[in-house]
Design goal:
Number of helices: 2
Shape: globular
Mean pLDDT: 77
Distance between the termini: 15 Å
Structural class: alpha+beta
Oligomer: single chain
Number of strands: 3
Strand content: 15-25%
Amino acid sequence: MSDEFVTAFEKLWIAFRPRWCDSHNLDGALAFSHEIMKIPLFHRIVQVNVDDSLHLFREKGFDCAFTPS
């Protein structure tokens, strides 16, 4: 799959997702939630700067991992 296709798909997905979920801006990253989800947390987060996030959580003493999907 070409990088251009992946980039175009991501942009479309990010544009459509807020139509059926609540969107939350996390200072650049976008998180999505919905009241019917069993877990009251964000169920999708996109546009995350992984290096910054890992640094932040490690500073706070948390173990963390990212799962691309």
